[in-house]
Amino acid sequence: MPRPIDPALRRARRLQIIDAGLTAFAEHGYAGATTAEICRIAGIGSGTFFHHFPTKNSLLVAILELGVEETIAFFTARDPQRPPRQVLSDYVEHAVGDLADPRAAGFITVVGGLTAHPEIAAALQADEDTTRSRLRDVVAAAQQQGQVRDDLPADRLAVWIMLLVDGFASRVTTGGFDVRTEAPLLQEQVGALLDGPRSTPTTPC
Questions:
Q1: Per-residue pLDDT tens for 16-43?
Q2: 60-195 is classed in which CATH architecture?
Q3: Closest Cα partner for 69 from 139, 142, 18?
Q4: What string of DSSP letters covers 120-148?
Q5: What is the homologous superfamily of the domain 1-54 according to CATH?
Q6: Residue 26 needs a FRET pair 20 to 30 A away by CA distance; which of 80, 90, 146, 149 works?
């Protein structure tokens, strides 16, 4: 009689392979990240790899899906007493933390070259949709409490927050860009967006 599968052990092994895949894609590119190399980094046999992921692309999709899970977890775990405006700042810091991972630049480059693959494109769209909807809800709450501008719809502000973070992320791939050093400027730009245009004082005659 076969032993029952331990879900926690299965998830731990799956996460182990995902982490190894992230390292392999970042360091060796898509072509160089062979299943043999991923198995070597993870310290597993090929049978274990294919038990969890039938293809290399399915592993790449799993990495993207894990990002969606982490985004949902971030917003779900937030303290309901925390001001929504602060949650938006926390989200930017959360995104910066992901980009500070030394593997981020290489992985972003790999994914950027695979958007023609339907399964990759679908995973990226799911990530964008999840982030957009969660940000929109927080922005709307911040608007209701008078913490951010309300002259623009919450969804539009959410999209612009994503544009600023995505633009920041694109610089990570160019080299010579220190994420932690530049992060305060990103926060400043998001803050300026949420504040809206300042009124120009009139000059006395």
A1: 999 999 999 999 999 999 999 999 999 9
A2: Orthogonal Bundle (1.10)
A3: 18
A4: HHHHHHHHHHHHHHHHHHHHHHHHHTTSS
A5: Homeodomain-like (1.10.10.60)
A6: 90
